[in-house]
Write a structure and sequence with these properties.
This protein is mostly beta strands. The protein has one helix at about 75; strands at about 25-30, 40-45, 55-60, 70, 80-85, 95-100, 105, 110-115, 120-125, 135-140, 150, 155-160, 170, 180-185, 190-200, 220-225, 230-235, 245-250, 255-260.
Length: about 280
């Protein structure tokens, strides 16, 4: 983290201690590249949030052939928040948070894992909650010329004029909640890359017709270089906006931006004193 950089943490709800009985948590572990469920991933459970130290509470759980899992309070020792470490051969290790509430079933506590990539490549993974249904990944960056590329749902690849393969690709697009959406930088050039998340479900919101849906979406962005997690960003909460300016990447330096704003004019783009990445975007079919 850079000096004077604001870091946002995952949004969590207070666990009500008045409930009794067995509680359940379920979800799906998805391949961030293909979108399919990952069978046979091993899930290890630790007490608390963002921690894989201390006592390993439950380590015998593996995902089903469709990538699903189910765990209950008797297996982990009681209700509360738990950090889950997911591992599988040829995939990068990931962690995510689940909550178990006595007498309740909390479903769709999902996460994703990325297949290992080359050590020079970068992979950006966006996931979120049940609402809004459609968040979009937007990446801009340098080209071999003086212009900048822009990858998103209608322009998923950037292939340079001086190359036969893609520099950048939106590998996976999701329009029905949770994600993941995955973008890979296969050939990184010198210059600055910028990553944004746009709330397509609330694309017409504005300061005059505000929306906090993106802010309360539970959106998370992870950045990998090779098999190593470089940074995790959580959307700022309690703010209006349908565009989350997440981070910039220059060289090997990642810098959080973490600001929310409105795309004020869907038809003609926005005037924020920087590139109009949303100018004249086509609607989805």
């Amino acid at each position: 983290m850079s000096e004077d950089e604001t870091t946002y943490l995952e949004t969590l709800l207070q666990v009500n201690s008045s409930y009794v009985g067995t509680g359940y948590a379920s979800g799906t572990i998805t391949d961030a590249f293909s979108g399919s469920g990952i069978a046979g991933a091993t899930l290890d459970f630790f007490a608390g949030i963002n921690t894989t130290s201390g006592t390993l509470l439950h380590s015998e759980l593996t995902t089903s052939p469709l990538g699903n899992y189910l765990v209950d309070t008797t297996e982990v020792g009681g209700p509360g928040y738990y950090t889950v470490r997911a591992t599988k051969t040829n995939f990068s290790e990931t962690t995510f948070t689940v909550v178990l509430i006595a007498g309740n079933t909390k479903s769709n506590q999902n996460s994703s894992m990325t297949p290992n990539i080359d050590t020079s490549e970068y992979r950006i993974i966006l996931d979120w909650g049940s609402t809004p249904t459609d968040l979009d990944s937007h990446l801009t960056g340098p080209t071999e010329g003086i212009s900048r590329f822009h990858t998103y749902y209608s322009n998923k690849t950037y292939t340079p004029l001086d190359g036969a393969t893609e520099d950048v690709k939106l590998d996976l697009d999701d329009t029905s909640s949770y994600g993941p959406e995955t973008t890979t930088i296969y050939n990184k050039r010198s210059g600055e890359y910028r990553f944004y998340v746009h709330d397509f479900s609330n694309k017409y919101s504005s300061s005059g017709s505000p929306s906090t849906a993106l802010s309360y979406s539970g959106a998370r962005v992870r950045v990998y270089k090779g098999s190593n997690l470089q940074a995790t960003y959580y959307v700022p909460t309690g703010l209006g906006g349908n565009c989350w300016d997440v981070f910039k990447l220059s060289g090997t330096s990642l810098t959080a931006v973490n600001t929310l704003s409105y795309v004020s004019d869907w038809a003609t783009g926005r005037d924020l004193g920087r590139e109009d990445i949303f100018a004249n975007l086509p609607d989805k079919k």
